[in-house]
Amino acid sequence: AEFPAAVDVPPLWNTRFKNALFHPAAGRGDHARIMMTASLMCTESVAEARALDAQFPHVRAYLQTLRPPPWPRDLNLGAVSRGRAIFRRDCVACHGTHDPTDTAFPNLVVALEEVGTDGALITADQFSPASRRWFSSSFMGETSRLEPAAGYLAPPLFGIWASAPYLHNGSVPTLQGVLHSPSRPKYWRSSRRLSDYDDVDVGLKHETLNHGHAGEPIPVRRAQIYDTTLPTHGNAGHTFGDVLTQRQRMDLLEYLKTL
Length: 259
What we know:
10% strand; 10 helices; globular; three-stranded antiparallel sheet; alpha+beta
C-alpha cells in the first residue's frame, strides 16, 4: 500500500467472541500465535520467537476473562426499551443478539460492496499476497492463518460506548455519526481529555474543522486532526442507520449504552 492503513484497535474484551482477530476477518486459527507476531520486531531469531510464543497462550487466556465496562451514568429506561426493539429488528442479523443467554456470535463478514466503508485495509501491506505467503511459510503459519476477506467483520458491540472512535479506521468520533452518515465530520479533532465524553451522541467530544492538515501551521496540532480525505481514512459507508428518525436513533443509542 502507498500509505499505512489507518486502524482502530478493536476492544480487547470482545476478543473471546471472534473467530478472526482483525477487522477484515483475517487472523484465524491460533489467536495466541497471531498476537505473538507483533513481538517479532523485538526478536533476533526464530528460537527467541518460539520462546515468546510459549507465553502468548497465557495472554490469550487473560483476554478471555475481560468484560466490558458498564455505562456509568443514568439511563432512560423507556428509550432503552424502544431502542432494544430497533436493535432486534435492524442490527441482530449482522451483530448478533447480545442476549446474555446467547453465547453464539455470528462472525458475519459483510462484503465491502454492502458495508461501503473504506476498503484500503483489506489490501494493505500487512495482508498483501506477499505478506500472506511469508506468514504461511513461517512457523506462525503452522497453526494460524491471515486470510483476509473481501469485506469486514461485523464486530461484537459489548461495551461499544467505551470504544470510540468508530468504524475500523476510527474515522467517526461518535455513535450518532455511525447511525447517521450525513452528520459525520469531514475534518475533526478530539479534545484528548478523558473527561470530555459526549453522553448524548455517545463518543468523543470533538471540534469540527473546515480544513485538514494543510490548514494547521503547528505540526503537533496537525497531528491531532482526523482528516477523512486522506488515503485509508475515509468515513463513508455503514449507512444502515440513515433510514431511522432522529428519535429512533436516540432510542437505539440509549440501548447500545447497556450492552
